[in-house]
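Tutorial handout. Part one gives the primary structure; part two gives the three-dimensional structure as tokens.
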Amino acid sequence: MMKHIKSILKDNKGTTAIEYGLIISLIAATIALTLSDVSGSIVEVFNTVNTKISTS
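Part two.
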């Protein structure tokens, strides 16, 4: 029984997969936040251009 418990504690395969999953989720969250900021800026630029074209 102790051998089985020790072998489970030494197994790192699942740990590596979890770490990669966490890294990928952090990268995805960063990309999503960056795109939401950029999209707001792009909308502002188009609104400004639209306003300037309308008033000319």
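Part three, for discussion. DSSP finds two helices and no strands in the chain. The helical segments are 2-10, 13-55.
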